[in-house]
Design brief:
alpha+beta; five-stranded antiparallel sheet
Amino acid sequence: MKKVLCAALAAMMFLAPLTTVRANSAPVYWEGYPSTVIMSVDEETEIKVDSEKLLFDLSEGLKGGYSPLCRITAAYTMTAGDDNTASTMAFPYIGSLQSLYEGEVRITADGKEVPFSLMFGEPAKGYGTFSDSEKKDPDPFSMILSSISPNDYVPESFDADDKAKLVSIDLSKTGTQSLMVSIPMDLSGRDTSVIALDFNGYSREGDRMELKSWVDGTDTIEFLVIGDQLEITVEGYIDGTEREKNDSFTYDIHEEEVDIRDYLLKEASSLLGRSISDDSTQYWNILAKEVDIALQNNDGFASIDDLTSALFTDRYILFIYSLDFKKETSKEVAVSYLASGTMDRRETSTPKYTFSYLLSPASLWNGFKDLDIEIRASESEPYLLESSLKFEKTADRNYKSSFETLPDKDLVFTVYKSEKITLSDRFNGWLARSYGLIFMLTLLLPPIIVFAILFIIAKAVWRRRSGNSM
């Protein structure tokens, strides 16, 4: 079942825009209250940015899913004011937890590694292709910060400290007919919630909940029962209408008490294909909130789709780090990471890829000047097709731009295999998009043409015979 889910997610990623890169360091501080902790913009900072060098390096030819990976490095020269100061900085980035390459993030100060924390915020909407990013005004940095919390999310629909019953059902099909298994549940008089994993269908009518799953060969299906426990039964049918039973299968039910938090984090790690960081609070906050909302909106039901939605949705991700400055001294600070771009094949047969970068947070420093930007394109997409800022081509696959002050717009650029999209590109793109239609026409046109020819011949013969009979 999980293999089917992964294939479906891959197809979804192929058809939809991928990660959008938006980042730049900004000064922040933690403002504490008795009941909460809020991250805010540090408006009192005395630190200035004397220069920033931005490098977008695609020349390594790294691939991530359906997009090339860009190694992005933001290198700053920062100078303190008249006093010694400790500054906390936030580097915002838009991407999914699935596309976050944690191990590739590097933050240095004067060449030495700087520890950092990851903070996850709300989903970021409205970013995608070049035209999408150009039309979308970035959310205010203060709004991005307001969605960040270092504290554990507290669900309303379940107690995170409670135990849940993990129900695992090992199924084995013994007959030749198609098999759909049903797990009916009677919730009357019970305070019960269910998180379904590895299921194809779900229904709820009054106090009756039903989980459904197709079985081909052998399979194991699982679900969590939170709250009052249920009597678990398994029924088999030949199809989803449940009109004709199919008893040609065997099953074993296993029940185990598990910690809700640990189990959801384990499932998230499995879906991501990697171990999550030791500090699991941020991952828990995203997962618990998504499941909590689903349980509230669906009468006590959530599914693995809610977990994948939490992990695969583009959201604000912040790298948080702190630096100590002595008065009137400078530091060379660099933030480096890998990121995917947006794949767009709506116009062409081969994709074009768009990357974007939020410059505006840098305006929150006490001063900012001298921005240099360099784009190193790859061999497969060597050309800068379009950009929101002007660039000069300085060498093959190399583009540069310089600004004395911070530009008034964010950077959005697209790389492509050619210098421009030709008529041939557009035609080949149309052929690729219309493959299904063309395939159907190749099947239908020949018999239609044959039928038309036979009809014309028959009609001509009939007219001749009618004319001779007169």
